[in-house]
Amino acid sequence: MRILIAAGGSGGHIFPAIALASAMKKKEAGVSLRFIGSNKALDRRIFEKEGLDFSLLSANKLPYKASWQLLLFFLKLLFDITKSLFIIVSYRPDTVIGFGGYVPCPVMVIAYMFRIPIVVHEQNVVPGRANKLLFRLADKIAISFEDTKRFLGADIYKAVFTGNPIRREAFYGSSAVTGRVDALKRFGLDAAKFTVFVIGGSQGAHFLNEAFIKALSKLDGSLRSSLQVIHITGIKDYDWAVGLYKDLGFEHRVYSFIDRIEEAYGASDLIITRSGASAIFEIAFFGKPMILVPYPFAMSHQVENARAFSQKGAAIEIDEKDLSDEVFRKNILGLFNDRSRLDRLAESAKRLSVPEASDNLADTVLALGKR
Questions:
Q1: How far apart are CA 242 and CA 255, in angstroms?
Q2: What is the pTM for the complete model shown?
Q3: Nearest to 343 by CA among 351, 174, 164, 13
């Protein structure tokens, strides 16, 4: 069986696709997998590191407003449709699956023309622009949140709740799974201290990084000796953040990027992050309390994701317009002093995790390929 997987443009699309590929290899002996990503450096780096067979299309994005860029978009789209035609004719996939964003669009158009079964995976509560168009072409729509069904309209009969695939195999056997104490040893941190893990390396996260570090500066002396931080700042904020942390008096580990993020998940008592679907489902898998600050300029995708978790008691949601160093300080202090609330958040997050999501999606894709 040959499966074509279209996923690119961000790790949030690519890592669930890799998790799916791993599940399919275990379920179907001899399955052939080929990836299609964008020509961003990130995509190539991940595919090559994972040793995957892949092809690349352009990193094209539909403009939100009419402009000369619209012409450039359609020229690139035409080129990518042509390239997708050659890929599909030569590879002859039994099923095609897409993970959102631009990359699956030209691939799905050609697959639909050749009557190849199509699965579209929607990671967020609110579907993105590309997926909304592709739902009409799809045979199955795999969803990560039950709440997504209300946005599917006439295509709701295609919906299959699978959850959002996570790299479960990478997490098992790691320090994150064997225990918090072992994970903290990897970072050279103290198991007796309250550990906050901040993921600020995503798009638009400087505001989050800045507000959190300012909040630390306002914590009193007793908490300073009881708290330690693991902070992913992203490349742009790394040097700036390192300089600020030196003057704060907190035990800390600052990184621009962490390869084995599962170790940081395992080490933490509290996680502060944006609310991309991949991140929050990974955190839920580890059963960790979280404060979510949704990125406000992504067509509300992250806002709805955060709301889905916060309304079920699995996270504290803070909208960026309401975020300040004082709001951060009060929430961190409140959770530090209320371990029962911290435990309730953790338990609720664990209940929302779907550890079998990769297997669920693999079953859906393989079943279509065998029709």
A1: 9
A2: 0.90
A3: 351
Which domains can be identified in the chain, with CATH numbers?
2-166+355-369 (3.40.50.2000), 175-352 (3.40.50.2000)
CA dihedral sign of residues 252, 187, 255, 341: negative
The Cα-based distances of 359 to 16, 17, 23, 167, 216 in angstroms read: 12, 12, 6, 11, 41
User: Helix %, strand %, coil % for the chain, to 5?
Assistant: 50, 15, 35
Q: What residues contact 174, with CB distance under 8 A and at least 6 apart?
A: 260, 262, 263, 266
- For the stretch 183-200, pLDDT in tens is 899 999 999 999 999 998
Spell 28-58 as b/e; 16+ CB within 10 A means b. Answer: beebebbbbbbebeebeebbeeeebebbbbb
Q: Band the pLDDT of 170: cuts 50, 70, 90.
A: low
What's at 31, amino acid-wise? V
